[in-house]
Amino acid sequence: MTFPDGFLWGAATASYQVEGAATEDGRGPSIWDTFSHTPGRVLNGDTGDVACDHYHRWPEDLGLLREIGVRAYRFSFAWPRLIPAGTGALEPRGFAFYDRLIDGLLEAGIEPVATLYHWDLPQPLQDAGGWPSRSVLEPFEAYVRAVGEHFGDRVKRFAPINEPWVVSWLGYGTGVHAPGIADIGQAVAAAHHTVVAHNRATRALREVVPGALIGPVLNQALPDVDDISDPFQQRAAAVQDMNQNLFWMESILRGRYPELAYEVYGDHLASVVQPGDLDVQPIDWLGINFYFNARIGHRLPNPVDQQYDIVGALIGGVPENAPVGPTTDMGWPITPQGIGDLLVRWTREYADLLPQMFITENGCAYDDGPDADGRVRDTRRIDYLRAHLASVGDAIDRGADVGGYFQWSLLDNFEWALGYAKRFGLVHVDYATQRRTLKDSARWYADVIARNAL
Ligand code: FCB
Fold first, then answer.
1. Predicted local confidence at residue 303, as pLDDT
2. CA-CA distance, 77 to 83, in Å (whole number)?
3. Residues near 75 by Cβ (< 8 Å), separated by ≥ 6?
């Protein structure tokens, strides 16, 4: 199976998960610093204080990217490194760090793909209300503008917000992510404000970055129930699809929310939408982060993924479905057909509104470490990636326009509420020594890239 010419092969990371250096060079606190330092919030009390020490070791990590042969690297800017208080003064040392990284990438012939917000909201902005409040909008736009003005000569591909569903529903709905609030009203308000912030960021970037290529990055999952002819299961599936997929697809691409959103969220939604909020800002690409189909009728062992609980809270209970087959270390089902189904579905349902799509994240956690000979034989990751890439290739054959694929993640890193316990990397990180080891999957991926084929 051969991929289209120029297919953008990449790997992804995010600032708080890899950088460390949490208090260095003027970086201000984010909600994830606060959250991870609150006892009981993150497994084993892990924090991102040091993480992969990428802030200092980025040249070595750049070497790893070169070795794997990626054409693009998706990373995120840490807002609290660039504007430590969230608004106001810029921190030149923060800008200098990303200057070094970006210049290094460009010298290596690797395209920088930048996320503006991968969850590290400056703490003062949460103190002012966070994503459920409109007070976040102005500072976000100013931050995005500052980033665009400074880096826009070298970075063209931008994603304003990574996974707005996770930002709103896990941060404010179930509270398993920072800032740890469990309140449906706040989650709905936050969800709406991610849309408004996305629109405003897109407009601002277009003003300051000539030739900018801007796209939302949405974590999507198709509903998966045992019996779609059963009315209760049908309802659960429809609500999950609205809650996680269509809320952002419809608002970003068509400038409206699904009817079902107003029906299910009621006044929580109606009360926060203001005129102009949903004015469509054309996008250049759609980024899809795909891990698994939403097995909403079955509680996954991992308490962090609570589509089950969210849908349950929204419709008053969820149907019982049979447990899924083998899962990854996250307890996530392995459903490779879902990634291709999504690509084909959007091609069909959004036809001419839909520009090119990218898989901006896809990967799996498996706890494989170095064997006695130092090699990391992570064959389960290779199997997972191969199956998902085959499904992407299949979708391309079925007419989907897919521009590239980013594996999550370059490095084992701080996996949010699960800390360092879950390893997603192509590269193994020994956290005690910060030693990096390419896993077998990295070598396999390098080969796929080199041949542009599976
Ligand atoms: C996604 C996040 C990413 C990583 C993967 C496993 O939801 O965007 O930071 O944690 O899941």
1. 66
2. 11
3. 12, 13, 14, 15, 101, 112, 113, 114, 115
* Domain map (residue ranges) of the chain: 8-451
Query: Order of strands across the sheet with 157-161?
Result: 213-214, 157-161, 111-117, 72-76, 8-12, 402-408, 356-361, 285-289, 217-219
Distance from residue 232's CA to the centre of ligand 1 (Å): 30
Greatest extent of the chain over all pairs of C-alpha atoms, in Å: 63
Q: Is 14 in the pocket of ligand 1 (CB under 6 A)?
A: yes
Q: What pLDDT is attached to residue 368?
A: 98
CB of 166 sitting under 6 A from ligand 1: yes
Query: CA nearest 253: which of 223, 222, 227, 278?
Result: 278
Structure tokens at 16: 């708080």
Q: Going by CA atoms, what residue is nearest to atom 9 of ligand 1? A: 14
* Among 395, 324, 406, residue whose Cα is nearest residue 363: 406
| Class in CATH terms, 8-451 | alpha beta
Q: Please, what sign has the CA dihedral across residues 380, 382, 384, 390?
A: negative
Q: Which residues contact 254 (CB under 8 A, 6 or more apart)?
A: 280, 353
Peptide bond into 112 cis (omega under 30): no
Give the integer Cα–Cα distance in Å for 160 and 261: 23
pLDDT at 4: 98
Output the pLDDT for position 323: 72
pLDDT averaged per 10 residues in sequence order, the chain, 454 residues: 98 99 98 98 98 99 98 99 98 99 98 99 99 98 98 98 98 97 98 99 98 98 88 92 98 98 98 98 98 82 76 87 84 94 98 95 98 98 98 98 98 98 98 98 99 98
User: 222 near 294, Cβ under 8 Å?
Assistant: yes
Is the distance from the beta carbon of residue 163 to the nearest atom of ligand 1 less than 6 Å?
Answer: yes
Please classify residue 81 by burial: count the beta carbons closer than 10 Å to its beta carbon, then call 0-12 exposed, 13-18 middle and 19+ buried.
buried
Eight-state DSSP code of residue 360: E
Catalytic positions: 163, 361
